[in-house]
Amino acid sequence: MKLDDLTPKMIVKELDKYIIGQDDAKKKVAIALRNRIRRLKLKDELKKDVIPKNILMIGPTGVGKTEIARRLAEIASAPFVKFEATRFTEVGYVGKNVETMVKELVDVSINLVKKEMMEDVKDQAEVMVEERILDALVPSKKKNQNKQPLMNMLSMFGQNNQYVDNDYEKNNEEENEQNKNRKAELREKLKNKELEDVEVEIEVEEDQKPMFGGMGQEFEDMGLQLGEMFSNMMPKKTIKRKMKISDARKVLLPIEAEKLVDQDKMQQEGMERAQNRGIIFLDEIDKITDNNEKSSGAGVSREGVQRDLLPIVEGTNIMTKYGPVKTDYILFIAAGAFHTSKPSDLIPELQGRFPVRVELNDLTEEDFKSILTKPQNAIIKQYIELLKTDGVTIEFSEDGINSLAHIAFELNEKIENIGARRLYTVVERVLEEVSYEAPSSTEYSLNIDSKYVKNRLDDVVGDENLREYVL
């Protein structure tokens, strides 16, 4: 589906496939995405004045904040990066600075465009891959190869090398014709996938180690840029690797496809997409407020991080290895639980840059039941397919699902509310034994009902100390 065709209702419908509940949040992010589409249709003089309405999500952990933002980017085919605000340090301190998120967004955007462009030239690249494999199967003898040493030796003894030269030319022509026929025969077999298990030796570029590795973010960024500069100036180092033709296709396809991609166009499109469609998700923003007692600043001003964020969220130019990038039209989605602080504890200027406020609700026991079964990537569906690969067929009865949801909900109430993440812990514990025993000598089926769930969990749930560590 094209981006222009996505209406807010259609966006919410797509989000419903993966996220249970949180209807208000899904509605507001859908409107924000549609407004981005609307802006791109405006005339240039008006377009530059329409800025994104950044979103602040408020709600406990595990209720779907990150998933909503990530799926939104996926629906829009938009570059997306996620950062914990607590990872940033104020300018002047050792650690990640806030400009890193824009640089990484550009990298993600360019890689996204690169992937699309490589997909467009895939057919042409596959032909080039077959030619490389054919060259490895039938090495072509270069013209006059190894002839010169013999010619020099004959000259030393005063021999006429005209006949030698003619013989070499004749032999080369005959050999080239034989190679041509051999390649034509093998090309047909390659197309029919008859040689996939044949081992072949191919030449590939050697992986380059990054400069200044492990010396901090700034040095690593410098190392990447210097490394790219030198790699463009110096010839590429290659190594020979032996592998099956089926594996050689996978290794060579991206190499050959990348050769066909217009690098300048790729970078230009990537930067444009980052600037106009990019989404940056800032998690744990509540933990960089001065009122948050849990956050240990270790001498680093949390308000200083907020002030460093402000110009980027307001709109500025950030220098990247591809050139300057404007942040004016990047959509920022911030999120936090705000247990020990509130949005008004953020500096006023930053508060004003997140005009759309969304409060996400705690998940109910009914929500847990739906999360287990309804989404396309539902937890139960994942485990069913995983164990099926080992010949184990598992089925979840309705009362078994109810028990899983009830226990997860109760644990959140008794220990700490970690939202839907508790379901993974509970289901993993229930299926631990069957996952360990599989695969077995014979295929078998297993019904996960309420009795099975209780047998696996009752001992742990009943022990207050044990459940805090295990579940």
UniProtKB/TrEMBL annotation:
Subcellular location per the Swiss-Prot or TrEMBL entry: Cytoplasm
Amino acids binding ATP: I20, G62, V63, G64, K65, T66, E67, D283, E349, R421
Biological process according to GO: protein unfolding
All residue ranges annotated as the AAA+ ATPase domain in the record: 51-360
Record GO terms (molecular function): ATP binding; ATP hydrolysis activity; peptidase activity; proteasome-activating activity
One Pfam family of this chain: AAA
UniProtKB keywords: ATP-binding, Chaperone, Coiled coil, Cytoplasm, Hydrolase, Nucleotide-binding, Protease
Record bears the keyword Ribosomal protein: no
Domain Clp ATPase C-terminal: 363-457
Listed GO CC annotations: HslUV protease complex
Residues of the signal peptide: none
Primary subcellular site in the record, as a coarse category: cytoplasm
Transmembrane regions listed in the UniProt entry: none
Coiled-coil region list: 165-208
Domain of life: Bacteria
Family stated for the protein in its record: Belongs to the ClpX chaperone family. HslU subfamily.
Known role: ATPase subunit of a proteasome-like degradation complex; this subunit has chaperone activity. The binding of ATP and its subsequent hydrolysis by HslU are essential for unfolding of protein substrates subsequently hydrolyzed by HslV. HslU recognizes the N-terminal part of its protein substrates and unfolds these before they are guided to HslV for hydrolysis.
UniProt subunit comment: A double ring-shaped homohexamer of HslV is capped on each side by a ring-shaped HslU homohexamer. The assembly of the HslU/HslV complex is dependent on binding of ATP.
Protein name: ATP-dependent protease ATPase subunit HslU
Protein's gene: hslU
